Amino acid sequence: MSKAKDSVTETVKTIVYALLIAGLFRSLLFQPFFIPSSSMKSTLLVGDFLFVNKMSYGYSKYSCPFEFMCPFSGRILDSAPERGDVVVFEHPTQHRAFVKRLVGLPGDKIQMKDGVLFINGEESVQTPDGVFSETFEPQGAAGNTPRCANQAVGLGGECVKERYTETFPDGHAHTILNIGNTRVDNTAVFTVPEAQYFFMGDNRDNSADSRIAQPMGVGFVPEEYLLGRVDRVMFSAAGKSLLFFWTWRLNRFYEDIV
């Protein structure tokens, strides 16, 4: 009987230790994140599954699942992000995670002119790169339908957007999408404050980002709200659930994020 009790005790200990290690792993190293919206198409699709690398930029109280686990202000083991990084951060007022591309560093001047991004007065050149095509249908758990440049698309129809390769003045290149003219295609000059950052979605006309002030948009994001960088898609499913194996996008498994 004693041996049986010892066996049960050891099993319970093993489970507890495993949970503690998993919690520590999630808290300090990597955090899973699902893409719920279309703001980063075509770089990230609704239903992509990522791991956020928390070691990229160091740690703040927002990097922990519970703030009491990181009882300090500012950041420790701090490392500065680079323009062009795809970053997961906590929204400063909505207190939920967002994923966007880092466009503006502290001190930068950011402006949109006729849908073209200017950084410190220099144009980020957009080179036509065909179209991004997808089926007009409900996507992900929320079941939202995509926005299309060819309006009045019926369910099951082809939804297209213009695609461009955007190259920052420093040479970083990535793809962006264009749907049409919006109010944030032309903006005033944003001067990024010290220790804050400016983010935009790659699906430019379908992204609430730093071009729009909080609480409706993102505004400037203080550095302590950065959770980490994402470097690749680990898994992807087009359906409402990961269990719907027939909706898996096998071509996106372990795909690099540029």
From TrEMBL:
The gene is lepB. Residues 9-233 form the Peptidase S26 domain. It is found in: Membrane. Belongs to the peptidase S26 family. GO terms for molecular function: serine-type endopeptidase activity; signal peptidase activity. It comes from the Bacteria. It is a single-pass type II membrane protein. The keyword Cell membrane does not apply. It comes from Pacificibacter marinus. One of its GO terms (cellular component) is membrane. It catalyses: Cleavage of hydrophobic, N-terminal signal or leader sequences from secreted and periplasmic proteins. This is Signal peptidase I. One of its GO terms (biological process) is signal peptide processing. The chain crosses the membrane at residues 15-35. Keywords: Hydrolase, Membrane, Protease, Transmembrane, Transmembrane helix. Its main location: membrane. Gene3D superfamilies: Umud Fragment, subunit A. The active site is at S39, K100.
